[in-house]
Write a structure and sequence with these properties.
Blueprint lengths: L17 E5 L6 H23 L4 E4 L15 H9 L7 E5 L9 H5 L5 E6 L6 H15 L4 E5 L5 H13 L9 E3 L7 H17 L1 E6 L13 H5 L3 E6 L1 H10 L2 H13 L3 E2 L11 H20 L4 E4 L13 H7 L23 E2 L5 H16 L6 E11 L8 E5 L18 E2 L21 E11 L2 E11 L4 H10 L7 E5 L4 H7 L4 E7 L2 H17 L3 E5 L10
Parallel strand pairs: 1-2, 1-3, 3-4, 4-5, 7-8, 7-10, 9-14, 10-11, 16-19
Antiparallel strand pairs: 6-19, 12-13, 12-18, 13-17, 15-16, 15-18, 16-17
Length: 554
């Protein structure tokens, strides 16, 4: 019996001049449909740039008319798509949207041809965020790849590197801003405190409460147990179904007290009558119940930090978890009592929460809180997406200003005005069918430490750098919100000694951890102390950029 031979995409006489293009998408149909026009426009511009170099672009999978988008929308679909692609063909993963890395990761792990990840430089949909997540996931998986980004795919920076990738299979970026830890002269105070905190963590150990792993396909956000255990940290694997059950047990009057506490301190909720499109009082009530339930479960299991997946598990059952998450990360927050009413749980301090159950951020957040407490610096910490960036159109700030923006909540201690600067808007229906309030604010000016833990070569690494949060005119802030997601909290960040392209070339995650310090000198000390702690825990440390005054770390 004869078997039908499947013709592989990218195979043929013109194979050496053919590039296969794939697009990983969301798991949520609504997101794929709404975002498809931006993806189609990006692919058209990218194709034009590739064809100008004398190459042909072949799409690795079709536009699906019945579904009204052309994304790979599941891991199974990705497996089938890659079965049809010549494993030796040059391959581009083009992203203008948030994407689930596990849709394409299995095929990329066995692809032998050169791989290029590409994103459009736009804040409209989180394409840059999606590409950075895929880059971090490929790095963790040990897959070789190159990466590029551009506003219009016509600039010299993009075109010269695209040409290099097309002709050699690789393109390079300047990463001279990175300094290895063994070259850094560390102050005695930073080394002593960092090593002491590391020894305490190894000796006493800590627990990350993980409410279901693998949020939104983020392979890079899962820390292998053996690597985590070596730092003295262990996972308590908890189920979101248990969190849902516990949420149902919370009394209405307890939840109302949480909202009353927030509003008395100045938070403003923007509510309306339509559950499908508005933030409603009932949605906020459920979020306040989830907040109480999460704190009680963390107490039940003795967790030092917790992470809630939410997408996809709870999105069809409860409003968004973001109001919960931002509140947990704040020192001043509504008190939660034990079920018998005898104890206030985690009194006087944040319960560190790692958004989207990003375990790298969980370990980082746990370390950050301990370092800053030991140095009498602000302990509130959060992750943000490296969402986008642009020059200040108002001309107030000369530096390049990043938009760090997490999907729904940051601690109010980071905002101008604290709780008085906090607002609650309904989460976008495209991603959040059950709605729920965000915890939005504008991050206050000040000195911050940024960092990211990631996995490479089967080891934990940490990149750290310094930045300042700047104040922009309200009109410029609104422009940036409208260019991204106006319901979400925003941080205007200027990185010291790290350019836009250096950050994109180096950063191995969609997420970046941030924490404030009282001044520049204190922030430098906090960075060096955390780096010392990380090194003592066996994490490979890399410092990025410079101090605030422009002086190098080494």
């Amino acid at each position: 019996m004869k078997t039908k031979r499947v013709k592989r995409i990218g195979t043929g006489s013109s194979r050496d001049r053919t590039v296969v293009l794939v697009a990983s998408g969301d798991l949520r149909l609504s997101a794929n449909q709404v975002c498809w026009p931006a993806q189609a426009a990006m692919e058209k511009a990218l194709t034009t740039a590739i064809e100008a170099e004398g190459y042909r672009v072949v799409r690795g999978h079709p536009y699906k008319r019945q579904l009204k988008h052309g994304f790979i929308a599941s891991q199974r679909e990705g497996l089938e798509v890659f079965r049809q692609i010549d494993p030796d063909a040059p391959l581009i993963v083009a992203e203008a949207v948030w994407q689930y890395s596990h849709h394409v990761l299995p095929g990329l792990t066995t692809h032998r041809g050169p791989i290029l990840t590409v994103a459009n430089w736009s804040g409209q949909w989180p394409g840059l965020v999606g590409m950075l997540n895929l880059n971090g996931s490929l790095t963790k998986a040990g897959v070789k790849y190159s990466t590029l980004w551009s506003e219009d795919f016509q600039d010299d920076y993009f075109r010269t590197r695209l040409r290099a990738w097309l002709t050699t299979g690789r393109c390079e970026h300047d990463t001279s801003h990175v300094v290895e830890w063994d070259r850094v002269k560390v102050p005695q105070q930073a080394r002593r405190i960092g090593e002491k905190l590391a020894a305490e963590l190894i000796r006493n150990k800590a627990i990350l409460g993980v409410f279901d792993e693998g949020c939104m396909g983020m392979f890079n956000a899962i820390v292998p147990d053996d690597l985590l255990h070596a730092t003295g940290v262990f996972k308590e694997r908890l189920s979101q179904s248990a969190l849902y059950y516990e949420t149902l047990q919370v009394r209405d009057e307890e939840a109302r007290a949480v909202r009353d506490w927030m509003e008395k301190r100045g938070m403003k909720f923007h509510t309306g009558p339509d559950e499908a499109t508005d933030l409603t009082d009932q949605q906020i009530l459920w979020q306040c119940k989830m907040y109480i339930a999460a704190v009680r479960m963390a107490d039940d299991f003795g967790c030092d930090a917790i992470g809630i997946q939410y997408q996809q598990g709870l999105k069809d059952l409860l409003p968004a978890s973001d109001l919960v998450e931002g509140t947990l990360n704040n020192t001043q927050r509504p008190p939660v009592r034990s079920r018998d009413g005898r104890r206030v749980l985690f009194a006087g301090r944040p319960l560190v929460h790692f958004n989207e159950v990003d375990e790298c951020a969980g370990l980082d957040g746990l370390m950050t809180a301990r370092v800053h407490a030991a140095l009498a610096q602000p302990v509130e910490t959060t992750l943000h997406d490296v969402r986008w960036g642009d020059w200040d159109r108002s001309g107030t700030v000369e530096d390049y200003v990043w938009v760090f923006e997490i999907s729904g909540a940051a601690p109010p201690a980071h905002f101008i005005g604290g709780w008085k600067g906090a607002e609650g808007f309904r989460q976008p229906p495209m991603y959040f069918p059950k709605g729920g309030s965000t915890l939005r604010g504008i991050s206050k000016p000040g000195e911050i430490v940024w960092s990211r833990i990631y996995i490479a070569e089967d080891a934990l690494h940490m990149d750290l750098g310094r930045a300042k949060v700047v104040a922009l005119p309200r009109s410029e802030t609104e422009r940036r919100w409208q260019a991204t997601t106006p319901q979400w909290p925003i941080m205007h960040a200027v990185t010291y000694g790290v350019t836009r392209d250096q950050m994109m070339a180096r950063h191995k995650s969609n997420h970046i951890q941030v924490a404030y310090a009282h001044n520049a000198e204190a922030a430098d000390l906090a960075l060096l102390t955390k780096a010392s702690m990380a090194s003592a825990l066996g994490i490979r440390v890399h410092l990025c950029g410079t101090r605030a005054d422009g002086k190098p770390w080494a």
